[in-house]
Specification:
alpha/beta, Immunoglobulin-like, 2 domains, 11 helices, binds alpha-D-glucopyranose
């Protein structure tokens, strides 16, 4: 080989290694981010945190809009926010005990208050409150120490700034003038995103919300997304706009619904090819709500986690910390119970993909390679017949106990002889080893 040929094959090899490998329509996604998408999928379980000034009123994060709180009154409220019991260590330890692999936290919600040190606006927790600490920095440092990925939720909608104008469907009763420079608002958001992407170490990504407030507005997404990709090429863009993902985005989100369902009334039923994430409240509120006692049971929450995995989606389960910075005991208890369950049953969730059988009323399947996990969530009987899918089952056992499970081929499927259902069963998981027929 001549030295010229050698050089040519070297350059070629370099190109192969560094070239973006997926072309989605017009979009070219660098290999680096494709790998991060896969890792995101494998994580399967994250903890969502909605926390801000609104926690002081204990009526959820929409209180400013719901009660038409005027901007000066909300600003005065913000100036007394002092969550002295906030402890990043405790939050991250709780997320880990729950088995969550990542945390997504509100850096700025629709009320427009920044929960981080921002030079782009003094309406932030460090400059505006007696607390003076940057909880997101403390959290980012702790997450890095503990190997938890951190995502920042960022609201594109703002109920305080006059330059969020023309206004959208919400926040019209907070007393703002009927004029404002939309481009200055977009510039402000980009400045803040730059702060978040340069001041907190490598992030899991940015989780956008609020575009649905005025879907037709010129959001300048291409510029903002390019900024994010330039500052942190491995950060994912997750967007909760209730549509199929747009160019530049990495994850499709479903809010309060499993993929394909639309009980919430605003989700799309279309499922694309990107990683999926379902975000879910533990009661019915995202931000701390002092009267919302509608906590889902641990059994229901594990059901959601399994059903999300069965639908090939991550579950992002929310907590709404209190104004002092602590997390309600009801949430702590449930998270710990989920973590206990995952310690035994984690292999049927983490690193799996949606299984060969589409979700059923009785439960779902997940799979890793030729191993299939049958999650029996809602089935009182011992015999369960599942449809066949072109593989032969070579062995079957209960994941938690190792107990053998009888398998009989029947017309159109296989019958599993499960151990008796106990009233406190959270999810009877059967492990099937299979070979292709
Ligand atoms: C909705 C709500 C918001 C919440 C989000 C979480 O978009 O407006 O308050 O943060 O859902 O998914």
């Amino acid at each position: 080989m001549s030295s010229r040929d050698l050089l040519r094959s070297f350059v070629l090899a370099l190109l192969v290694v560094s070239a973006p490998v997926l072309v989605q329509g017009q979009e070219v996604v660098p290999a680096e981010r494709l790998a991060v998408r896969e890792a995101f999928r494998e994580a399967r379980f994250g903890m969502f945190i909605h926390w801000g000034v609104y926690s002081m009123l204990g009526q959820g994060e929409w209180v400013m809009h719901n009660r038409d709180i005027q901007v000066p009154a909300y600003e005065a409220l913000a100036s007394s926010f002092n969550p002295i019991r906030f402890n990043a260590r405790e939050w991250v330890a709780l997320a880990k005990a729950a088995g969550a692999r990542y945390i997504t936290i509100t850096s700025r919600h629709h009320d427009g208050f920044s929960m981080f040190a921002s030079k782009a606006s003094d309406y932030n927790i460090v400059d505006w409150t007696p607390f003076k600490r940057d909880p997101l920095k403390e959290l980012a440092d702790e997450c890095r120490r503990e190997g938890i990925k951190l995502f920042f939720y960022y609201s594109q909608l703002d109920w305080r700034r006059p330059d969020y104008y023309p206004r959208g469907r919400t926040g019209n009763g907070t007393g703002r003038p009927d004029a404002g420079d939309w481009n200055s608002y977009l510039d402000f958001m980009d400045r803040q995103l730059e702060e978040l992407l340069t001041g907190y170490g490598p992030l899991g990504g940015i989780w956008f919300d609020g575009m649905w407030d005025k879907p037709q507005a010129p959001w300048r997404l291409d510029k903002t997304y390019a900024l994010i990709h330039r500052l942190q090429p491995s950060a994912l863009i997750v967007a909760n706009h209730h549509q199929l993902p747009l160019p530049g985005e990495d994850v499709q989100v479903f809010e309060q619904d499993l993929p394909g369902a639309n009980t919430a009334g605003f989700n799309t039923k279309e499922i694309g090819t990107l990683p999926l994430e379902t975000c879910l409240t533990m009661n019915r509120s995202w931000g701390f709500n002092i009267t919302d006692r509608n906590f889902k049971t641990t059994r229901e929450l594990i059901g959601y986690l399994a059903r999300a995995a069965g639908a090939d989606a991550n579950l992002l389960l929310n907590v709404g910390p209190r104004p002092d910075g602590t997390i309600q005991p009801e949430a702590v208890e449930r998270l710990r119970e989920i973590g206990k369950w995952l310690q035994v049953n984690g292999e049927s969730i983490y690193g799996t993909r949606g299984g060969p059988i589409t979700p059923r009323a009785w439960g779902v399947t997940t799979r890793r390679g030729s191993t299939v996990y049958v999650h029996v969530l809602d089935w009182p009987d011992r015999a369960l017949t599942i449809p066949s899918w072109g593989a032969r089952v070579t062995s079957a056992r209960m994941l938690a106990t190792g107990e053998k499970v009888g398998v009989t081929e029947v017309e159109g499927g296989i019958a599993l002889a499960l151990p008796p259902a106990k009233p406190d069963d959270l999810d009877r998981v059967v492990v099937l080893e299979t070979v292709r027929e």
